[in-house]
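Design review, sub-item: ligand-bound model
Attendees: FS, YL, KQ
YL presented the inputs for the tetrahydrodeoxyuridine complex:
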Amino acid sequence: MSLKEAANAVRENAHAPYSNFKVGAAIRAQSGTIYVGCNVENVAYPEGTCAEAGAIAAMVAAGETALTEAYVIAGSPMPVTPCGGCRQKLAEFAQGTTRVTMATTSGVEQVTTVAELLPGVFNAAHMET
Ligand code: THU
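KQ shared the predicted structure:
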């Protein structure tokens, strides 16, 4: 299964009764395994989680800490772009050059990188003393 197919399939499972905006994310880990996530909203709105966060959590729970590619899809008029928090989450496990594809369910794709999504990323080097 491709990243696109995986992201599209998991999007169907999104729990988005408040926004009605279903998002699917698929990431390929260093091993080649694909991990998926969907947004999971909550009646206490701030407790909702993004699709990217779910995919990253699944990867880490499976024992992997490096991702080599990401794909995010939604039924949006333009390719869905990861929120600020998810950009930082992706950066934690990716390289700046890691490819991120943002897509619509109607077939539009936009390809970018983690560094383009989050210039000036806060990273471990900032914490060196
Ligand atoms: N959302 C994601 O899951 N990923 C994104 O990249 C953008 C936004 C979710 C969060 C919320 O459940 C819904 O989309 C509307 O913001």
